[in-house]
Records
---
Amino acid sequence: MTVRVQTEDFDVGQEMLGLRQKNPKVGAVASFVGVVRDLNDGDDVSSLTLEHYPGMTERSLEDIVSQAKGRWDIYDALIIHRVGTLLPLDQIVLVLVTGAHRGESFKACEFLMDYLKTRAPFWKKEQTSSGDRWVEARESDKSAAMRWENTRDD
Amino acid sequence: MRIKVLFFAKLREVFETNQVDISFTGSDNKVSDVLMVLREKGGVWKDELNENKSFRIALNQEMVTKDAMLNEGDEIALFPPVTGG
């Protein structure tokens, strides 16, 4: 399965092995792991709650993966995103991409994260020392996603 | 025509509900008509769904604009800009 939304943690090594082990043509595995920080916008974060839109979340992630496969010469990709309550140091998201060489794999991995952050229906709520608050979307995430619209695949 | 409207994250909290069902007597309605019906409830509905607010709209789980046409049984979702990852 290319996309998983789950409350449980994930094992990066195991997932990486699972994605590449049956394909001897894989020469590169690019990965990204997002982790919960204990600080955001100057406040201590004690925990994070992730909400999502079941159904649309999986569809949008699958769509992002198929776009990446269409743009770069990669073999496979995997996205795991956790939901529910998470604590600082917890892993939130995993993106893995396998390919023949690192260049295409790195690009596809970064593209997947940038698109995920602006298109997949997840919302974070932080529990902080000054109360609970919904995380606001960042302009920098929007710009990061936009640059893929302006560059053709190279 | 019956339409299901879902709310997520901050909008779900502010509206104190995760779903509203809306019926139209005609058949050529758009997402903007749903927004108009919701705004007419006044208070937080009028505030949060105001034109200058940056909420997002999904129709049958695909992102759309308020000009999208509706069909019987459609599912609309209204939510703030996403913050996953």
---
Amino acid sequence: MKTRTCLIFFLALILLPVMTVAETVYPSYTYNEWDESVSTPDGYDVFATVRSAQAEGGPWKGPQDLCVTDDGRILLADTGNDRILEYDRDWHLKREIREVVIGGQTIPLEGPNGLHVSEEGLLYAALKTSARAVVVDLETLQGTLMIENPENALLGDDFTFSPAKIGADNAGRIYILSTGCYSGFLQFSPQGEFMGYYGANKVAVTPEVLFNYYWKSIMTNEQRQNMTSILPVEYSNLFCAPDGFVYATTVATSSPVNQVKRLNPLGNNTYFARGEKEINFGDEELAVTAQGAASSTLLPTFVDAAVTKDSEFIFAVDRSYGRVFERDRTGNLIAVFGALGNQEGTFRQPVALDILDGNVLVLDTAKNCVMVYAPTDYTRLVHEAVSLYNAGRYESSRTVWNEVLKRNSNATQAYAGVGRALLKENQHEEALTYFRLGDSREEYSQTYRIVRLDHLRSGAVWFIGALAALFVVTKVVSVIRKKKKTDEDQKADGILVRCMKKLHIPVHTVFPKAVFHPFLGFQEIRFGEEKTYLWGAAVIAVLYVLATIYQYVGTGYLFNENNIADINLWLLLAKSLGVLVIFCAAQWSVSILINTSGRLSDIILTACYALAPYTIAIFIGTWLSNYMLLDEMYASYIITLGLLWGVVILLIGTITCHELSFSRALGFLLLTVAGMAVIVFVGVLFYTLLEQLITFLSTLYVEIVFRM
Amino acid sequence: MLNRIWFILLIVLCLLLPAAAVCEWETVAENDRLVLAYDPQESQIMLTDRVTGEIWRSTPEDIAQDTVASGMNKINRQSDLIVTFHNPTYVTNQVNSYTGSIKNGDFTWEKIENGVEIRYYFPKQGFLIPVRYELEEDGLKASVLSQQIQENVWTLSENPEDIEKAASGKDKQSVMTVSLLPFMGAAGTGDEGYLVIPDGSGALIHFNNGRSSAAAYQQDVFGRDSTLSVKKAATRTFQVNMPLFGMIRNGFGMMAVVDQGAAQAQLNAAVSGQLTGYNNAYFTVTYISMESNTLMAGSSSSKSVTLAANTFRDMGDFVVRYYLLDKENADYTDIAALYRSQLKLTDHTGTPAGTQLKMVASIPSIKTFIGIPYNSVTVLTSYGEAADVLTDLHQAGVEGLTLQYAGWSSQSVQGRMVTGLDLDGRLGGQDGFNRLLSAAENTSSGLTLSVDLVNLYKNGNGYWSLFSAADNVNSTARIMNEYLMSTGAQDPSGKSWYLLRPDVVKDAAEKLASSLSGKLKEHTGVTLTALGKTLYSSLGKNGISRTASGAYWQKAFEALQTSVPYLTAETPSSYAFPYLIQADGTPMASSRYDVTDTDIPFYQLVVHGAMVMYTEPLNELGNIEDAVLKMAEYGVYPAWRLIYRDPALLSGTDGADWYATSVSAWREDVIRVAEQMKQLSHYASMSMTGHERLTADLSVTTYENGDRVYVNYGNTDAQEDGITVPARSFTIREVE
């Protein structure tokens, strides 16, 4: 029994299927509608770990690349040992390649750093140590092409050729990543002639770049030379896929988007999500690393990518967070696996990645091992569904998506998939629900257009009927009223106006008869005999606060990016009531300063009355936004209109109450805004100081308690 | 030329020196089976098995051949103690007994009954650590006499003048940790065998497995002290749930168990090539923990300071017992059997063993009323609905159902402490609950109500964070946080909560026990979701050590055991074993640290038969079929997390992590897996006596009565012992 155990132990070491376990050591997650990480079932399990010490032909020394051939052989660039090892799919050593023959001359493989095997069975190897790239037949190890010291005017005189990674497309064009070259990949013809740069990363135009451009134009040559030049981002690796595209990973980028690119033959990035949206291949949530007082965001650093044969799924491994991301060709996140750590399936320094029989192989040069990840049953389902879906077979994808949803209700993509299928089956209402759950706004909008039309059609009779009834009723009522009113000699007031009267809000303030009596309402306040009450204004202020909350919560899905669970009532209160209070305080201060005739009550009343149309507009607009499509911005037009109306009232109120001319009133308002800025500034300053004081006091308390 | 000769001479001398130091072994104790010898020269011990002739030494014999070790590690091999300590400014340092004491003869020893007591004096660090090695019937008892450890001793003279003189200008060094017998039984590169590590389900570290670049194994027994803050939570780990390690060396077995002070012990293991040329494992006792705190956090003058926690030496002696297995060709199952016999667990009685349903009754949520949001509770599975599910599944043929019911109480759903049967009107109140009870009775199902007792999410119901929270190193309440799955960093918008102080945990448990007393029928009870796996101290002023917490926990378990007929816990550690009749969320794998080789069902070998074990919810796994096979191999039964109502209710709540919960969607799977596992249900009351992995794809598990369960993970049928095990399936071979 003992010998048997030992035997099995060694078997297990070399030949793999170490049973996958129930749970992986790294978290499996996806991102929800608000880009927050949420759990999912495990996407990939560690199927096996091939460790250098136990591998046939091992130990390896600082291996840098891994390449899987079409027939399932694995080539490993054992860089430190100056050789390439060829394994079969079960990790039995087939060949140890130490040299190749180029045109009769034996070339040793010195520091092989990048490998590629074409469909025709040609091995492309970038030999970093000897600054060469060779192309040989994989079987005979003989070839005719060796690239050494390429010379071209484009390259310049001080160019040093340091081939790190290599690839070749269907047409045999060779792409080489040369370390220290920031202009893109070097592109060579199948005959080895330098053709130019490929996929040059463009410098993003930021204000800083523009400023530097301007600055440089006025500097002397010497100064210019001393200035660090802004370099385009550098590539870290490439993968030439069967679909003819070159998938490239970048390092040292300034933002997390477009870190993995799909370059077309012209060298332009074509990897974008639906609606030309840029793809953030790695994490949405990023860690902040604090070094002393300065903190910076840790961006993902992708070091290698690989694509499935059908170009449906793209894998890339990120060294910063130690994760492999899988996305489909429209950028949807399929799976995340791996982590930094010292457990099986975690990385220390991943350098290369490839796909073999649906399993993902990741080479870690620090751990000196290859980890083999196998998709779980759950991920297989997702793959099947995505393939069906992207092939346009929505109906058949629906059952698979439903199975995915059963196992993962956080799979937003699955909801959208089911929604699509439902749409095809003309089940619009149901499709809406699923598009909503799948956070697919565009499709939601398109479907809602149909649903809304249906509603209108089916409800049209009722709608028109109700309208007619309303018309008749109002007519009848007004006729009766008129009869009564002739007695009381009163005008017929609308319900709104009556409400305002009850609240002692002069009618002409909020609804000035702009043409006839623009100033009447405010004159009533300022000079009128009848007393005005502040509590009318208070009601408007309260309604305004409610409107802000309603806008946050109640805006239609298509226009609402808020997560209701994240609502912060204090923040909303500060945004609404806070601004109002600051405005009043600022205007009062300014009015005292420049000695206008307005009283504080006038200022408050003016501000509140000015808010009334805005408040009403928010209510109406927010309600309406629930029935609008993405391209119908009417709701926001209404709200803007309300705001403009409010500004007009504010202006009129200011002119009247403070007895200013139009231009002076305008200036007065501008001064108020400046005053508000000052108040906010002081407030922020005070808040920061207070916060520091509190931190200080609490630290002091902690210290005292600790020392006691 | 002369120089060269001198040089060669020097080298020869150096090589000869270790050999020249001839050991003078003195027998200090012996019995029928074992002999304990002590070498007063080098202060090392040797345990000889008279029957097998196997020798277990505290320091390896042939250290000269080890070329891996360097620096401190080199001398550690000759030491029976490694001590870490800190100075008044919390700078830590390490010293071993060889350099610090043995080399210059600064230790004294005396023979005691059955053994030897050695008092190591470290003149440079100023402390005195007495240890005791005593021979027992089946092994060795090694103790660090914690309470006799002295610090700030700068001379052994008792003259006060001398003491004052010696102490002048010296800083007190405080002993933080002591590693006991780090190289006891250490195996060299020529030895064959493995270490058994009770991490999660259990793992083996084969000797000389070549993982020299991996980190050595180092984990706290019973998990990390949750009172100490966590910076990052990037990966999932299982904890060491039993205070032991085993070693199989050339077919002979040894098991080391921490007998006293387990709650403050740390398990270490290394293979040759990592630190030294030896494969070794040992325990370290922690008297003082260190923690770095950030002062003035969030401001530009924020600063990280390291603070030392209280000195906890209240465990009495720190005792590790080394047992020698009295058989040849021993393996890990023998170690499990030995540990099992020591735990003296009572055999499992006829509680249901079949399928566990983890149902969630309700969850806090945010709802809106005409646009205004407010805190509310969303009902996911009312009492009546849970009853319906039990009845339905029972009628569909699922036997041995047991329902673990979370969020069932009006208090617990809000995160307050549960102190009694606080039924929730929204869930159906008393009437609904009675319906659930009778459904459980009619279907002979078990019912356990989830109770936390550790995490204080919300104040109220008699427990307030201001008075009852466990403290940090700096005497302020320890605030627990959530961590992001993506970055592993603290979730800025996540929940924060407190830990109940250990003595309050005991009070809360007793309060709950007394209010439940007599109210629960047979097969109804409580699941402790945290108490079985979380053991923590309270630091700062009036600190409570993990050892003292362990005593409170024991009282809590005792109180609950007497009044609750059906007590279970999530992922219980060994301190909880005696009180439980069921283990939920059993670990099915180890943390798979790079240094370990294979996972084994060590936990299951120890526990099986004494408790019914259920898995983590199957429906949340990526590979359900694999998990079913593994359950058959490990003797564990299926569990499912389910809610009755629409899972869409979970979106935007804390339940978003339950991503596969719909009863209607999973009903068929529950029935199918129950049907598959049915034939294994009667093994629940038997102990598991053997486990072996026959090939990479085939395993066999043996039960008390001799029945063997073969599990084939492969995609082709397997032949073994004359029977065929179909691909991806399992077969039972009953004993004739």
